[in-house]
């Protein structure tokens, strides 16, 4: 409190005026916060408003395993709808990023922007509360508040990016097994939609994420979407170049009437070669990556053991002189 009063006194040059402004700011912020929370709670608890929000969200309430979203989720969706970007290209890029990270709900974009907007405000509020406890200068205080706001803005993006990389890594690791199973199923006489369904069932325990994606492809095919279009949407949802290459080969095979089994087998062989080359590339980089641990960790110890006794002897000799 004293720190904030000191800041206001520096700006106004009058201690009494600064105290009055400080009290007025606290009172106004308290009233506005109470009114905002009251309006939000009343709006969310009102059955009519809640029902309208659920209908807009696409929740019917009749599904057996479908659960109604909580008040916090609805609140984040409303905030995201208010402040989300209206640029279609930017929204599409954000939707693609969230889809690659595994967030496929209709309100994922709104909740993402709501979190990115609310988290900096929360961290700034925490920083302002902690500033009076730490005696720092005005410049350092403003720098700390700005830094907290930047961290709050970047944390959701970094988290989603890391989640996207982890999910794509798991899908990429599970893709070879799925490809081998597809080759076996197609060569045994199963059609492509039946093959995808069978592979999804077989991988539902070991590789849940890839099994869900393949099951979604099968559901789209059953709904009337062509196999080529469903596979293209699979490549868009996963964002993997390996699946994009498979989709292109299967689309050409279906278009020109060639054997799907031969296409899958050729791509499986190419994918094994590509995976071997990637492993060899990673192995070749080990020597370069080991330079830094050797320089900063092992070589100082080696020089200390090898040259240390000689240096001690030199110091003793010069000391006796």
TrEMBL record:
<feature type="transmembrane region" description="Helical">
    <location>
        <begin position="113"/>
        <end position="132"/>
    </location>
</feature>
<protein>
    <submittedName>
        <fullName>Type II secretion system F family protein</fullName>
    </submittedName>
</protein>
<dbReference type="InterPro" id="IPR018076">
    <property type="entry name" value="T2SS_GspF_dom"/>
</dbReference>
<keyword id="KW-0812">Transmembrane</keyword>
<feature type="domain" description="Type II secretion system protein GspF">
    <location>
        <begin position="179"/>
        <end position="306"/>
    </location>
</feature>
<keyword id="KW-0472">Membrane</keyword>
<feature type="transmembrane region" description="Helical">
    <location>
        <begin position="138"/>
        <end position="160"/>
    </location>
</feature>
<keyword id="KW-1133">Transmembrane helix</keyword>
<dbReference type="Pfam" id="PF00482">
    <property type="entry name" value="T2SSF"/>
</dbReference>
<dbReference type="GO" id="GO:0005886">
    <property type="term" value="C:plasma membrane"/>
</dbReference>
<feature type="transmembrane region" description="Helical">
    <location>
        <begin position="20"/>
        <end position="42"/>
    </location>
</feature>
<keyword id="KW-1003">Cell membrane</keyword>
<feature type="transmembrane region" description="Helical">
    <location>
        <begin position="290"/>
        <end position="315"/>
    </location>
</feature>
């Amino acid at each position: 409190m004293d720190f904030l009063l000191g800041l206001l006194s520096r700006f106004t040059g009058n201690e009494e005026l600064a105290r009055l402004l400080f009290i007025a700011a606290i009172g106004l912020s308290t009233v506005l916060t109470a009114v905002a929370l009251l309006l939000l709670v009343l709006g969310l608890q009102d059955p009519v408003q809640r029902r309208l929000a659920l209908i807009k969200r696409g929740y019917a309430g009749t599904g057996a395993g479908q659960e109604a979203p909580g008040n916090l989720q609805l609140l984040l969706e409303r905030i995201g709808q208010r402040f989300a970007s209206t640029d279609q290209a930017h929204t599409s890029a954000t939707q693609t990023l969230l889809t690659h990270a595994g967030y496929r709900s209709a309100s994922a974009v709104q909740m993402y922007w709501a979190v990115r907007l609310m988290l900096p405000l929360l961290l700034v509020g925490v920083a302002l509360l902690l500033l009076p406890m730490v005696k720092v200068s005005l410049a350092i205080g403003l720098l700390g508040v700005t830094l907290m706001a930047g961290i709050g803005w970047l944390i959701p993006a970094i988290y989603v990016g890391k989640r996207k990389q982890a999910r794509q890594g798991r899908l990429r690791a599970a893709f070879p097994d799925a490809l081998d199973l597809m080759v076996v199923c197609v060569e045994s006489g199963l059609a492509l939609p039946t093959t995808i369904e069978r592979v999804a069932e077989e991988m539902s325990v070991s590789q849940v994420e890839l099994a869900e994606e393949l099951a979604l492809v099968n559901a789209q095919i059953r709904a009337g979407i062509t196999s080529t279009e469903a596979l293209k949407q699979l490549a868009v949802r996963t964002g993997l170049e390996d699946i994009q290459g498979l989709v292109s080969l299967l689309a050409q095979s279906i278009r020109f009437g060639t054997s799907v089994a031969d296409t899958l087998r050729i791509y499986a062989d190419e994918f094994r070669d590509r995976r071997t080359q990637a492993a060899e590339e990673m192995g070749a980089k080990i020597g370069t990556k080991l330079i830094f641990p050797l320089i900063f960790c092992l070589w100082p110890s080696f020089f200390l053991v090898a040259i240390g006794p000689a240096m001690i002897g030199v110091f003793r000799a010069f000391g006796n002189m």
